[in-house]
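[audit] Reproducing an earlier prediction to check determinism. Same input, same settings, fresh worker. If the tokens differ from the archived copy the diff job will pick it up downstream; this log only records the rerun itself.
[audit] input (274 residues):
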Amino acid sequence: MTTHEEGKLTEYIRSKDFRYTIVAILVFLGIFLLVSFLWLKLYTHHGQELAMPDYSGYQYEEAVKDAAHKKFRMSVQDSLHILGKPGGEILKQNPAPGSLVKSGRMIYVTITKRSPDKILSGRLPELYGKNYERKKRELEEHFEIKSRIVDTKYDPGDPGQILEVRYKGKSLMDAKGRDNEVQIEKGDYLEFVISARSGGKVEIPDLRCKTYEEALFLLENLGLTAGDVIKDGNIDDLNSAFITEQDPPADGSMIDMESAIRLTISKSQPGDCP
């Protein structure tokens, strides 16, 4: 480039026309970038402007109407029985509440069953004499049945063993056998009486006609004790004396373990003893 041409270029760069050209180019680029950004944003969020409502706790029919009003659809994906909850109540949903979704999106819900599934008691495993904690886990994992302890009774064997199984107050299994024809609702509770070495209840034993020594042995095995001893007449040998009265009496009722039973003893056995 000659010196004359360089001078003309320098003169042009310093001119107002050059500055106007540069400004025009920058303005054009700015407008182009802004339009591109707005178009990209509009394209990315097209049809994705609706927030998903929270339908937890709604009755299904009510939720379907509300969803239709808000341009959504709804379908039951699963149903579960939950004790104490009315049927048709929505437990969970997909998509999650608050998420942004397109109009017309299908909402899949899990609802409570209107009537629980049932299982025949004859299908249950043997429970009498088994460890309560192990059978509790088995019933919940394999049969969807819950368990609770309603009473304990003294038993000389290992503690925590199942002595009786009840359902809604009716005995299902005990030492006498089992009832295999009872319909049990899944999610409901079986009630258990389990063994204990202390702190439970035992049936009041019949001590009349036994010797004092025999009565003490029986009371000890049941986790009970002898209370006040009333002597009827002169007694030389306490152990060989007979029990003529007891308080409380043996009437089939239960008594707390470690309770004391008051005894009346005599040298002679009562006349009505076998």
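[audit] rerun output stored. Observation attached for the diff report: The chain has a mean pLDDT of 86.
[audit] end
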